[in-house]
Amino acid sequence: MNRRTRGISLIEIMASMILLASFAALAGRVWQTTLRTTRDTSDATGRIGMFELMLNQIKIDAWSAQSITINADNRVDLHWPDGQTITWQVSDDGGADRIAADEVVQHWPAADESLHFAADPAGLALSVGDDPEQQPLILVSQLRLVEGSRP
Asked: CB neighbours (10 Å) of residue 128?
């Protein structure tokens, strides 16, 4: 007697279900990782944008400074020719505060690295992070450059 089997056996169905469950579990993990990466990228982009805004403002302030005073508590005073003083300091949360002569405070949130101010003959040296191998960013003062070029 020739018996032909038609259909799918129970073992084949079970194997298919196990494979389908494995693919679903992997797809769920990939989806969670993608969402987490998207969120982290958005946060990092926001922090970079805020840091660039802060850096642009301190460049403008240093460019117009006639003299620069570095204080011991990681604070710098930029003295302008019109008598105005702009103070930059590292805040308690690791961010940066800009205090204008009219006591208006602008605050930039903490970057991933700490900020350090130092004096430089051309203007102001700004270091980000604690790596001694990293070169500081020199923010040039046009008035100090002119004074330095005079005989």
From this structure: 16
Residue 34 — φ and ψ, nearest 5°? -65, -45
Residue type, 129: G
Per-residue pLDDT tens digits for 95-150:
888 998 777 788 888 766 678 888 888 888 888 877 777 788 888 888 777 766 44
Q: Say what the pTM is.
A: 0.69
| Segments making up each domain of the chain, as ranges | 47-149
Quote the CA–CA distance of 100 and 143 in Å, as a whole number.
19
What is the DSSP secondary-structure string of 34-50? HHHHHHHHHHHHHHHHH
pLDDT in tens, 62-101: 888 888 888 877 889 998 888 889 999 888 777 888 998 7
The SS3 assignment for 111 reads: coil
Neighbours of 59 (CB within 10 A): 16
CB 114 within 8 A of CB 90: yes
